[in-house]
Amino acid sequence: MTKPLFAAILLSTAVPALSAEAEDALITVTGKGLADLPGDAALSLVVIDRDRILNSGSNRLESVLADIAGQQQFRRSDSRSANATSQGITLRGLGGNASSRALLVLDGVPQADPFGGWVAFPAFATGRLDRIRITRGGGTGYWGPGALAGTIELESVGAQALTPFTGNIAYGSRDSLDAQGSLGLTRDGGFAMLSAAYGRGDGFIPIVERNRGPVDRAAPYEQASANLRVVVKLAPDTEAQVTATAFTDSRERGFDFSRNTSEGVDGAIRLVGRGRWGWQALAYVQTRNFTSDFAAINDSRTTATQTLDQYDTPASGWGGRLEIAPPIGGGVTLRLGADTRQLTGQTNELFTYVAGSPTRQREAGGRTGTSGIFADASIEAGILTATVAARLDWWTISNGRLLETTLATGAPFTTLRFADRSGEEFTGRAGIAVKAADWLTLRTAAYRGWRLPTLNELYRPFRVGPDATAANALLNPERVTGVDAGFTLSPATGVSIGVTGFWNRMDDTIANVTIARGPGSFPGVGFVGAAGFYRQRQNLDALEVWGWEVDASVRQGPFTLRASLSHVDPTIRATGAAAPLDGLRPAQTPRTSVSGGVDYAGRLFTASATVRHIASQFEDDLNSRSLDAATMVDALLVVPIIKGFAIEGRVENLFDAEVQAALSGTGVVERALPRTLWVGARVNF
Question: Is the pTM of this model over 0.85?
Answer without folding.
Answer: yes
